[in-house]
UniProtKB/TrEMBL annotation:
The keyword Transport does not apply. Residues 64-321 form the AB hydrolase-1 domain. The keyword Signal applies. Residues 1-20 form the signal peptide. Keywords: Signal. It comes from Mycena metata. This is AB hydrolase-1 domain-containing protein. It comes from the Eukaryota. InterPro entries: AB_hydrolase_1, AB_hydrolase_fold.
């Protein structure tokens, strides 16, 4: 069970070019969902193994701002700091012709935050992402006049990787995601080092005093960085602590959902940092890549390809330490590889 929830979409473009520089602008998209969720928001299988009497329906239209746990879409494009650029969206755009859409998941950032935190569960959050991906393939509402997107690659960070994994079970071969890049998330390791999460209104009463106690956050983000203090900027950790956001207790409990993803037929890559204090520190630095590839890959028997990568020196937030450029190079390589599958 990992505690950061972020999902982003990376969209290869063939018809859209930005002259001289890459442009970025926010857009709020209303998305309707109608799903069954567990009555018990801590259901570890997010309703996959529940019967009808254990479920309730959530039907609503939520606004998504087009992030792991306590993060928003800013994880993919944080401020430039100390003459370094930690923005993957800017990095990928400069490699062209790729466009990325960083999404605030339900309950976080500028996306809708239901009054009842138990409405923010894996089935609800993934249904929004799935609907959004389908809209991108069928309409040009985000970029009027442009062609629709042919290929969509889902990027997940930590529990956001768990969210996309859950979605691969739900949608199977009908998934709108042609490939998945899942970072800072493993299904086969025994994770013993987990951050402590607290009701958000106790973490920061000035910001979140009115929230349902089922919304959680964390005041100290240092565990998401490597143990070596020379491999990251202490100011990035301070920034994390200042701008950290919230997630629901359901997204924590359901992030451990793991099963055989036998229906998903796209391509999958998993990336972890050898200095990830949650996943790899205490598990041999995830050094046995062959064994981990076999164990993790066995859960995806029908995919076009499966690749497992250990990024040496990187922490849990591999986008935010001094090895970020190397991580970004890996991301772009995977995007090019997966895009070629669809041509």
């Amino acid at each position: 069970m990992l505690l950061y929830a972020l999902a982003a979409l990376l969209l290869p473009l063939s018809s859209i070019r930005v002259e001289a520089s890459c442009a970025c602008s926010p857009v709020v998209i209303p998305v309707h969902v109608n799903v069954l969720v567990p009555k018990d928001p801590t259901d570890p299988f997010a309703g996959l193994k529940s019967n009808a009497s254990e479920l309730r329906r959530v039907e609503d239209t939520y606004d998504l701002l087009v992030h792991g746990f306590s993060y928003t879409s800013q994880y993919w494009s944080p401020p430039v700091e100390e003459f370094r650029n930690y923005s993957y969206t800017a990095f990928s755009c400069a490699q062209g012709p790729y466009s990325s859409l960083a999404v605030d998941v339900l309950g976080a950032g500028l996306s809708s935050r239901p009054a009842n935190s138990s409405d923010v569960q894996f089935p609800t959050a993934y249904a929004l992402l799935s609907q959004l991906a389908r809209l991108l393939k069928s309409t040009n509402f985000i970029l009027p006049g442009a062609q629709t997107f042919k290929t969509i690659i889902g990027f997940g960070h930590s529990a956001g990787s768990g969210l996309l994994t859950f979605g691969s079970i739900v949608d199977g071969k009908n998934s709108p995601f042609d490939a998945l890049v899942l970072t800072s998330f493993l299904a086969t390791l025994n994770i013993s080092t987990l951050p402590t999460l607290t009701s958000a209104r106790d973490v920061d009463p000035l910001r979140w005093a009115s929230l349902d106690p089922g919304y959680l956050s964390r005041g100290d983000h240092s565990i998401f960085y490597p143990t070596d203090p020379t491999s990251f900027s202490s100011r990035m950790v301070l920034l994390d602590d200042l701008v950290g956001d919230v997630g629901s207790v359901s997204l924590v409990s359901q992030a451990s959902t793991a099963a055989l993803m036998s229906g998903y037929t796209g391509a999958v890559a998993k990336i972890v940092g050898s200095a990830d204090q949650i996943i790899c520190v205490g598990n041999g630095g995830c050094e046995d890549v062959t064994a981990l590839t076999a164990a993790e890959g066995a859960l995806w028997p029908a995919v076009k390809s499966f690749e497992f990568i250990v990024s040496q020196g990187s922490g849990h937030d591999m986008n935010l330490d001094f090895f970020a450029d190397r991580t970004f190079d890996t991301f772009v390589r995977l995007v090019k590889k997966f895009s070629d599958f669809e041509t």
